[in-house]
Specification:
By secondary structure, the protein is mainly alpha-helical. The chain is about 70% helix and about 0% strand. It has helices at about 5-15, 20-40, 45-60, 70-90, 120-130, 135-145, 150-155, 160-185.
Amino acid sequence: MDSLDDIALLGERIANDDQLAYRQLFIQFYNRLSRFVMGFTKNKELTDEIVSDVFINIWRRRKNVEEIKNLKLYLYVSAKNITFNYLKKLHRENLADLDSVEIEPEDPFSDPGAAMITREMNLKLKAAINDLPPRCKLIFTLVKEDGLSYKQTAQLLSISESTVDNQISIALKKISGAIRYTFRHN
């Protein structure tokens, strides 16, 4: 249920006061947005407050949700904007430095169907992702785990699509190198 059509359908249902659809959107995106925001705030309570604000705003403006062309991207942009506003209030000035963002990747094999890879390999893959430079890890997570397109990621982070492409290439090379290295030396 992560396709744009499915998310748009949730948006339509939310616009019609469907609380179940709102709950589904919340369940689908709360953890993703929390990981994203935590990379900026490094504070669990503040992260929870910000992500809650994102969803409160969606419900308050539910009558206009149908007008949003890409609800998934809208959620991330809202989270980023609310985060930056909170951080500005807390007098932090180094907000736009993507190299300082620390984001915790999702378990790459949380899907039971993909769990055929051994636990050891799963841990090595997660470690390889964690070893990526912060900007690279953030971009990799948004594209590969959260399913944003290169264009959406570029818009969200105010960078070029070629930067996103370059960072994904770097991430994939480093991850595949770490995994290949692991196979040769075990």
